[in-house]
């Protein structure tokens, strides 16, 4: 039970949620969520499912069903689509989940006329992105940059940013995000 609480807290922090904010979204009190995170209470399956949905993960991951913290390798066939936003961009997980991770890696595919709105959630750390294929427009605090294959950007995730594909071709962006400023 302790590990479930640790996983919930870690995922909550990775997603940039305050305890009271996640509790409100899930429909439980802040006190109840705090007790779950500290392993003093166990969530119902319905609550656990709601927590997982709001943290963009699965119940299986929260309970450690596929604990892969000690497995450093992700094969190409194991890369998973984790999100498609309403603007058509696809985000893929390139690294295994782990309780003690300080960074995450993703590949984002941008079809024609798509953008990154809603893909990054609330991050509090730093982001490094490398343009693998194609071209993108990158907006950072109302300044626009044109990125081409081989270009990279590094910035604080708390800033206002987005990536946009204004070309006719699919673009691919490799992103490494830290969960906190380190």
Automatic annotation (TrEMBL):
Lineage: unclassified sequences, metagenomes, ecological metagenomes
InterPro entries hit by this protein: Cro/C1-type_HTH, Cupin_2, Lambda_DNA-bd_dom_sf, RmlC-like_jellyroll, RmlC_Cupin_sf, TransReg_Diox_bact_type
Name this protein carries in UniProt: HTH-type transcriptional regulator PuuR
UniProt-listed Pfam families: Cupin_2 (PF07883), HTH_3 (PF01381)
Record PROSITE patterns: HTH_CROC1
GO cellular component annotations of the record: cytosol
Listed GO MF terms: DNA binding; DNA-binding transcription factor activity
Protein keywords: DNA-binding
UniProt-listed SUPFAM superfamilies: lambda repressor-like DNA-binding domains, RmlC-like cupins
Domain HTH cro/C1-type: 8-62
